[in-house]
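During the second year of the project, the team shifted from modelling isolated chains to modelling whole assemblies. The rationale, set out in the original proposal, was that interfaces cannot be judged from single-chain predictions alone. As a representative example for this report, we include one of the complexes processed in the last quarter. Its constituent sequences, exactly as entered into the pipeline, are reproduced here:
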Amino acid sequence: MQKLLLLGDEAIAQGAVDAGLSGMYAYPGTPSTEIMEYIQASDEAVEKKIHRFWSANEKTALEAALGMSYAGKRAMVAMKHVGLNVAADPFINSAVTGINGGLIVVAADDPSMHSSQNEQDSRFYGKFSFVPVFEPSNQQEAYNMVFDAFDLSEKYRIPVLFRITTRLAHSRASVERQAAEPEKPFHLPSDPRQFVLLPSIARKKYKALLSTFESLKYDNRISKYNVFRDGMNRRIGVIACGIAYNYLMENYPDKEPGFPVLRITAYPFPKDIISDLTSRCEEVLVLEEGYPFIEEALRGMLDNTLKIHGRMDGAVPREGELNPALVARSLGIKTEQSYKVPAIVRSRPPSFCKGCGHSDTFNAVIEALRPYKSDGVFSDIGCYTLAALPPYTIITSCVDMGASVTMAIGAADAGLYPSVAVVGDSTFTHSGMTGLLDAVIKNSPVTIIISDNSTTGMTGGQKSHATGRLDKICGGIGVAPEHIRTIIPLRKNHEENVRIMQEEFNYMGVSVIISTRECIQTATRRKKAETSDNITKE
Amino acid sequence: MKSDIVLAGVGGQGILSIAATIGLAAVENNLFLKQSEVHGMSQRGGDVQSHLRISDKPVASDLIPYGKADIIISVEPMESLRYLPWLAKSGWLVTNSTPFINIPDYPPVDEILTEIRKIKKHRIIDADAIAKEAGSARSGNMVILGAASLYIDLPFKSLENSVRKFFEKKGHEIVEINLKALRAGRKC
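Output from the structure prediction step:
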């Protein structure tokens, strides 16, 4: 079969296309964005008319995917780990309703927080909601697992969680394709009450879910991914999960490790596969990317006789992603490092692009706030969060999508004045609109500045739901038309923009200032594309 | 055969084009490959790196272990030093000499070059000047790749082929400019 060079994200996307996917749903978020982008760019997906539009947020994405599953089709939804918090409500309840067409939920975790606010481990969501979890260790496995995950999902009528981490999501390797499967036919659920979680129905369905979760442990589609390899050296046995297995094997390039190794890439699993390993070893080392998920389960509340090493006893660090050296150290293998980073090397944090509209917006905000002796502004998740760094240092919060709006409301309730939020356009339509409604209902004295670059910039410039609609959205929510101001963040407009901001700070009700200028990156790309279009036309 | 390569630079300098070019050449030679990239936040003018591992045997880890890289290829001098913990004692450091200054405390360039010269096997190249001579100031990354190609176990012809493949969509002229830059780097 054809071989492709694919990122982990792309391997999952290609796997889904080949496994008969009918609908892909997502909101952009590093490191998950490339799954949707790959499907949007795929000629095959276009030809098969696979649904492939961005959603307003992860919750709407997951619910739409559940709707596609309701109609009997295979659906996939992808998000970054914190996106699953947003989508937690439909996710946990979709386990109770069950599915009709196969449903895969991809959560891309970001240990070491390369591009995130935390390093939560999505495997806990699997356990929490009684949903099986696949944790591929390499790109080929990620591709193959999609087929098994859809089959498993349909056999047990349950959603399946795919947990990947940054290193797999953004690492490229060769992937061999399988024969493509046709899409599933449109068919509605045979039980019309399957998706009706009235308490009386939900109680029955929950009971059934608990027993399903027990029985699917023994399914071949899970057990074939959890592989035990015995070794003669019984002093220690190693449990390695997902990508941690690669870091383990990197330390044994030309030989077998010699000790028993249990490789885990699918959950839940029966107890015996653990006792197979632990019964023959004096000590166990658990290597897992993220939280000590298995390690904690092994330790339990009472200490048992088995010596267990892992993140909790410091054999590997408690937080941050793993690498070959950390794994080597936990096994007592010496590694050599010939050079150190010279002291002369300075850190180079990310910064606004030259000519970025956000920087002009913040320059105006800083000056407008000066007479008020303000500490700064609430802000949100996106490129504009960089205004927390010098030379701006004007942002006093970055918590979760949309929180700037609602934190500004709460702080105003407590007496903060002026209470100002700066939020991006895409973040606003993701989770800021409902907060704005709260503000309108009680006429909070807040100023919400929407820094509108007409794209989802930080993740690479995906289409924003907000583009061209912000004015109408804010008016529709109930902000008074005279307090919806539109400005263009350019140096030549600086004085006027400062004045407009101060006028709205002085107004003791809800104001929205829409500061609109296209992202410099997308503008450059658009202009390039237009020029090359013109050349081809000529 | 094994080549573990750390690619270094600043977001937007084109290190992923270098990675893709070497990657295509590795595929042409039926080698195993893993290449980890940086996406997201640090792409905005921050330091970026890519680990590229090619081998005639399957590659386990997506990340190169410390002290095991055969070569660091950097399109920016200070960035070439940031990844020294990955470089093997016998490894090569090939770097551009033109600094990319977007921070207020960027150290004096001659002090950076002094640090680079402390590495036993190093090559410092004015890639920007050579690229300009080749006809495109923006193909400095291909000049660096050309210079580094002497220390990567891949036929130069394969690299030329992958430059053709990689830039194909952008037109014949872009392909030729990048080939010229690649060859100029190889000869310098």
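Residues 2-99+106-187 of chain B form a domain with the Pyruvate-ferredoxin Oxidoreductase; domain 3 fold (CATH 3.40.920.10). The mean pLDDT of chain B is 93.
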